[in-house]
Every structure is written in C-alpha cells, then in structure tokens.
Amino acid sequence: MARKLKGKIGSKGLKGALLRHQAKIKMVKNIESKQKHELKKKTPNINNKKVKRNQELQKLSQEKVIPFEKNETLMLCGEGDFSFAKSIVEQGYIESGNLIITSYDNSVNELKLKYPHTFEENYQFLKDLNIPMFFQIDVTKLVKSFKISRNNTWFRTINRLSDHKWGNKPLQNILFNFPHNGKGIKDQDRNIREHQDLVFAFFKNSLQLFNLINTKVQDDAFRYTQGYDLNENTPQSKKLTNEGYGNIILSVFDGEPYDSWQIKLLARKNGLTLSRSSKLQWQNFPGYHHRRTNSEQDTTKPAKERDARFYIFSKYISNSSKRNRKSDDGSDSDSD
To answer: Is the peptide bond before 257 cis (omega within 30 degrees of 0)?
Structure first.
C-alpha cells in the first residue's frame, strides 16, 4: 500500500507538486459526487416512481372497498337515522330499486323524535325514490317481524310498499352496521354475552330469511325455464348457494369489547365462513353519521376517529356439496 505523503501543498519540489496533484484530483471527485447527488434529486429513479405509483393505487383501491356491488340486492338492518342508506344511494354504490331499509324502531314519528336534526331529511330523500322502508324489524326475529306467511309472502309485502316493484328478485346481501342492543349494560362480561347473543341470532335469522325468499325465486325460475338457467350470468343469480344463501355483512369497531364478541366464531357456529374483510373508510360514505341507539348524540369518541372493519360472511359449502353442484351442472362428463 502506498504511503501517504506528508508535507505542505505549497512547498517546492516533487513532493509539493505531487501533493497539489492529489488535492486537485480529490477536489474534482468531490465536485463530481455533488453533481451526481443533485442530478439524482432532480431525476428520481424510474423504478422508484413506479413503486410509489403502485403504492398510491393500492391505497386508493383499498379506500374504495364497498362490501356489495351496485347491481346486487341489499337489505340494511338496524338503520339509525337512515344516513348510511342515503349515503350509499347518493354515492351510486347501490341502485335504489335494489335496496330495502329496516329499522328496529316503531315508526317514522319515533325516529323524528330520536333524531330531530337528521332523520327527516334522510327519510324524505329515500321515500322520494320509493325505496321500501320497514319499521319494527327485529334482527333476531326477521321472518316473524316481516309477518311472512302463506297468504302474506315476502314479495307481496315488498311490492306493496314500492313503486319500483321488487318483483321476483332474490335477496343477495344483508348488512347490519355496528350491532348494538341499546341496553347500556355496565357489567362488561354480561354486555359481551348479550351482544354475542344478538350477533348469533342475527346470523341465524338472516340464513332463515335467505332460504325462505331465495329458494322460492330459484324454484319459480326453474319451473319457468323448465330447468334451463337463462339468467346464470346475470348479477342477481350470482353469490347465492343452491339453498339460496347470500352474503351477511357486519361492520364492527376494532378493539374491546368488540374483539371479545368473537364474531368469526359465532359465524362458524352458524355454518358461515369469512369471505373477506376490509377496513371501513369513513370518507367513502359522506353524510353517514354513526349514532347512538337512543339519541342523536355521537358516541363518547367520535366514530370517524375510530377504526372499524366490514366483515363479509357466506354459507360454508362442503367439498361433497361442491361435487354435487358440479354434478348437477353437468360439468362431470363421466357422470351418468
């Protein structure tokens, strides 16, 4: 290794000339290095730009996750001041002719008293679109609450309240935002148990309603087409099992006590599986105000400052059922 020369740059002779030459080379290298650094700042790497753009697109797509599709049918359960229903219609997330709204409260007048500053405007907006709205609907007794019977069928009830004429459309999605029994129980263990009972009963009753409504739709279509599925590629024929089960959607806050509800376990006990979940992005639903079950006041911590998720559950289909479905569809060429 060459020994570093000692001495002054300004000294005469060979040693001084060599030192001056080395200093000049070092100065040139420093200038070149600084220029390269400045150039890199002005023209960032193309690959880095692509990565950043992909990250932005991914973030944007995550923020626009809506748990149902515009051309699918949807029933909202336990609506408060109807602001969520209004928001999804205004934003074009759902066609007004495919929406049904239900409330646990007894009447329009009761909701006007409970939400004096917000409900009436939301209600009038939805009423002008002839969207069916039902009151006194208990999610733990859906079939009973709708008073469905041999003489008073689901379709007769829906069509009586809507100029859109629901017709013979299946029900594909049932959504319950932030389940709450409204009791305000202070004992946390009891509070958790009662909300587990509420969610479990909601799952069970939603499946009953799906089966009751959609098997009739499928049977009528089967008879009409003499066994040929003319609508197999239409949106309203998708996302239903052979038994007529659709998607059950819950929105729930993150953290306790909600984590202790164990909604995935409650779903499994009803034969449901988690299809997917996504973060609830509040900015996707302008005008939606999460309210208390008993007043227009916001919760202790404003909802939009709290993290929440949508959970989409579907009926679990066993491998044997899948094989039977393939056989029924004629996709097994070796079957007799």
So the answer is: yes
For residues 49, 54, 57, 59, the Cα torsion angle rounded to the nearest 10 degrees is: -110
Residue with tokens 């009662």: 194
Tokens coding 74: 């949807």
Question: Tokens 């024929």 belong to which residue?
Answer: 237
Give residue 336's identity as a one-letter amino acid code: D
Q: Residues near 225 by Cβ (< 8 Å), separated by ≥ 6?
A: none
pTM of the model: 0.74
Strands (E), the chain: 74-77, 99-102, 133-134, 173-177, 247-253, 272-279, 308-315
Six-digit token string for 273 = 């599986």
Tell me the C-alpha distance between 100 and 82, whole Å.
Answer: 11
Half-sphere exposure of 66 (CA within 13 A, CB side): 19
Task: Give every strand in the sheet of 133-134, ordered side by side.
Answer: 133-134, 99-102, 74-77, 173-177, 247-253, 308-315, 272-279
Are 89 and 66 in contact, with CB atoms under 8 Å apart? no
pLDDT at 293: 56
What does the pLDDT look like over 168-210, one tens digit per residue?
899 999 999 999 987 777 788 999 999 999 999 999 999 999 9
pLDDT at 332 over 80: no
